[in-house]
């Protein structure tokens, strides 16, 4: 039975969930009236795209097998294969996301602006996968923009050509849902956070309205630079993080849009076997999600472990719920990859899950008295 369950789970994660998550994300962004017909059409387009790719690659493979092309022809073949893959990406994510001849823009900035942009964008996972050269290209292309309280930065339903990284001030995000007369408040955006990338990733209208509630300074990145420098790495990173978040039990109630937003506040950190991640008695303001590896919690001076953690678990929430110092030390017993965020970001994004956290405290609370 366990083997069957594991086989089904593996099949779901590998084959079903990637397509389902893509479809769900597109549905949330497009919000069609006829969901069934729209979904059928989307799946047919995806099938057509995949068929084209398979046919094209088979043709190239046969050509390579049957003919011994001259050296000067080979670069053309490679470029042809690359073009086909780009066409697939454009077909799935929108015609405006086609990669064309790209000359990055350079907007003059002083050293203070450059330093502020670098600090802010390195806090967003969208930019964490960039090497130094590409990071500098993004910094050069960013434009400082200022908004006054009440200014609309983006409006739901509009086309989007920029993403924004907040340097100063606060904004509110609202969304008008079908069959509702009033907009619903979703969240506040604070310095260091970014927004607006969904319209660029998927070539869809703005999914929500974002308005300044204080004087705001933000850095805007244009679509062309995003598509050519950031997009591919961001999609890969986001898909990787989504797969990890799907393993975390307490996050199962999140929809795809919420999961995408939660990715933005998470940071990755790696620990080696034997490293102490949390030290008993210290003040803690961080909660950790385990992507890979195993850890154990111990009370200082005691040999018995408090709890054993594995991939898909989380820890660090006791200090959040009880407003006390760390109750135990947590040590990596294998090499580990963790995602973490501060409590303020966690409760802002995941506030409704606090009751689940409180309920689950009993899993090791009796060890901590």
UniProtKB/TrEMBL annotation:
Residues 126-247, 250-367 form the Cyclic nucleotide-binding domain. GO terms for molecular function: cAMP binding; cAMP-dependent protein kinase inhibitor activity; protein kinase A catalytic subunit binding. InterPro entries: cAMP-dep_PK_reg_su-like, cAMP_dep_PK_reg_su, cNMP-bd_CS, cNMP-bd_dom. It comes from the Eukaryota. One of its GO terms (cellular component) is cytosol. PROSITE patterns: CNMP_BINDING_1 (PS00888), CNMP_BINDING_2 (PS00889), CNMP_BINDING_3 (PS50042). Pfam families: cNMP_binding. Residues 57-85 are annotated as: Disordered. Keywords: cAMP, cAMP-binding, Nucleotide-binding, Phosphoprotein, Repeat. Residues 64-73 have a biased composition (Acidic residues). One of its GO terms (biological process) is cellular response to stress. PANTHER family: CAMP-DEPENDENT PROTEIN KINASE REGULATORY CHAIN, CAMP-DEPENDENT PROTEIN KINASE TYPE I REGULATORY SUBUNIT-RELATED. Belongs to the cAMP-dependent kinase regulatory chain family. This is cAMP-dependent protein kinase regulatory subunit. It comes from Paramecium primaurelia.
